[in-house]
Design goal:
flat, mainly alpha, 256 residues
Length: 256
Amino acid sequence: SLAILFICCLLALLTATRVLPVTDGWYEALIYLKDKGLRPYKDIEFVLPPITPMFYQLLKFLTQDDIAANKIIGVFLTLATSGMVFAWLRPVHKTIGALVAAVLFFIILTTFPVYIARDYHTLVDLFAIISIAMMTQAYRHATITPSALAYYAIVGADVALLFLTKQNVGLMLTLAFAGYLVLAHVVFVAPAARRAQLVRWGAFTGAYVLGAAITCAVIVSMYAHGTTITGFVGDLLNVQSKGSPLYMATRLMHDT
């Protein structure tokens, strides 16, 4: 499996540095205009959330607009995401099963017809895997302790980063984890323990919301340009290309 992963990584690097899809250069153009003094969401019409311009500003700082170097970084980000899949699944499915899943995950991502190594979807995959892995381990933090509250706050921060990268995926995972908190701490609870569980639910939900709110406030404040933070987030939710918030929240049902 390691040999297969190495070969896949090599092929992904060759493909990423030799193929130029029609969308190559879009984000570099955004950063070029930003460097000229124009502001995304104010002077430049831009529908993607603010993590995207931040990501490409970072790539420009690291590589000075070297598109091949940007793609190599993107491939290794995809490889890191696959490594997280392996680390997440290994305790449950043992080494071989987790490694096979990680390799298949890498192959599926890098052979997708519209795969662009340094595209913002690379960050979506990374943040989504971190969020899902942390959500599935949340049951281990069943008592109110500083470490448990910090854990839920980190989950909230990561989901906020996901929302600020691709709003529809972030919204779906936000609602999914909120549903888990309600089911685990309110619904499927013995009546005698319900009061104590409600306290835990309040504490964990508060930490989760606080982590998400602080992350959103810090990042959005860099790009709001006079718009309120809530107004800016509302605009992201109402981007027509993604549909209404209700459509985004129920996207899986529409797609099936």
